[in-house]
Design brief:
37% helix; ten-stranded parallel beta sheet; 10 strands; alpha/beta; 11% strand; 14 helices
Amino acid sequence: MDLLNTLVDKGLRRELPTREEALAVLATSDDDLLDVVAAAGKVRRHWFGRRVKLNYLVNLKSGLCPEDCSYCSQRLGSEAGILKYTWLKPDEASKAAAAGLAGGAKRVCLVASGRGPTDRDVDRVAGTIKAIKDQNENVEVCACLGLLSDGQAERLREAGADAYNHNLNTSEATYGDITTTHTYADRVDTVQKAHAAGLSPCSGLIAGMGESDEDLIDVVFSLRELDPDSVPVNFLIPFEGTPLAKEWNLTPQRCLRILAMVRFVCPDVEVRIAGGREVHLRTMQPLALNLANSIFLGDYLTSEGQAGRADLEMIADAGFEVEGAGEVTLPQHRADVAAAAAAGGCGSHEAAGCGSHEGAGCGTGCGSVCGSHEAAAPEVNEPRTDLVAVRRRGAGTDLAPNA
C-alpha cells in the first residue's frame, strides 16, 4: 500500500504526515489492519526497539473535583461510586509507589483531582516527591495536578519532579462540549508552563467520546505542535454516573488505528497506552505494543486495570522487554534536548526534529480549511460494562495495590 510506505518513510525521517494521510489511516479497512500495524510497528521499532516503558499511577487525592469534565468519574456531580479521599501523606504515597516500582515501573505518576494546585498543595507534592526519591534513586516522577499558576512548574522542578502531565484530551473545536469550567487554551498554557520550566512535557488525548476522525486529527496535530516528550492515548472508560456513560464508540480495531495514526504523527515520541486499554483493546492488547512503547502497570486512578503480572506476561509473550531503569526512553536527539531543558530552561525543541509543522493544516482550531468536523460515526462497540470495575484497592484503602 503506497500510503503505508509513504508514512513509514516519513516516520523514519521524523517528517509530519499530511492531514489527509493521517485521516486515511483511520479510514483503513479491517482487511488492511495488520498491514497498518506492521507499518507503524517499523517506525516504533526504529526509534524505541522492542522496549516497553512501565508507568505506575498513584492517586494522591480522589474525587470531589470542582471541574465538570464529562468523561471523568471524579467530576463535579459525578454519581460514579469511586473512592473519595483527601491528600495522601508522603509516606502513604511512597508506600503506594513502591508496589509499582517493585513490579517493574520506571516512572511514578502522582495525580490529584481538582482544578489546579494551591501553593500549599505544591508543598505537599514536593514532600511526596522527596519521600519517593529518597527510597528509589533512579525513579522518574511525573506530577499531574491540573492547571498550573505562574511559578508552580518551577517549584515542582526544584522539588525533583521530572515531568508534568496535562492532556489536551480532544480538539479545540469540540472542547466546550466536553468541559465548561475551563478552556482548551488553559490546558495548552499549562503544558507550555511545564515545558518552559524544564519539566518533560507529557500531554495526550482521550478517544471514544463521540468525536469525529477530524477531531482526532486536530488534537494529535496540535499535540505535535506542542512537542511533548510523551503522548498518553486514553480510551474512554464510560463510567455509570457520568454524562458519557452511554458512549461505547470504540472497537479493538479502531483503537489500533488510532494508535497507529498517533505513531505516524509523533514517530519519535513516547506513545503510551493509558486508561481503557483493557476495556476496549481487550485481547488485542499485545498487538498494540507494536505501536506504543509505554503502558501503565496495574490499576488506574479510579478503575481497576489488568493484573500487573498479566501485563508483564503479555509483554514477554509478545516478544517485547521491559525497559530498565538505566535505559534512556527517548531517542538520543530528543533525550539531548530534554536534558538541556532540564538543566536550564526549555527552548523550543527545534533540535528534536519536529520540523516546521508544515502540513499541519489548522492545528489550532480549524477554520475553513478543515471543514465542519462532520464525519461518519465510528463503528459502534458493544457495551462491555462488565469490564469497567471501580478501583477498591491500593492508594486510599487498606488493601494491597495491584502491581
